[in-house]
Amino acid sequence: MKLLVVLLLAGVARGQDSSTLVGYLSLSPDQVSKLSANIRDYSIWLDGKQQRIGSLRGEIALETARDTPDPGELGWRYAEIEVTCRALFEERRQLQARNVRTPDLQGI
Question: The whole model's pTM is what?
Fold first, then answer.
């Protein structure tokens, strides 16, 4: 249920019609503002990480296309992608925890 609430509130952060959701959850304007800010900040952070992963994938493709790819060059790029993915999962977990800690949302 908590994941559903987070996904629905993501629509709130993107400016989608949220009146039904806000009414159903009986959210105050303060709560909506806090949740929207959390999701917006996460989205901005996520965008930068996704761009970096795309860049690394391009670099991996270039290195792999060489006649003799350098394993060290490939390795650190794959390692950076893995570290970034782990950070994405951790940040998402923290976002969910922050949103659940928003006053009066603990029971949802």
Answer: 0.69
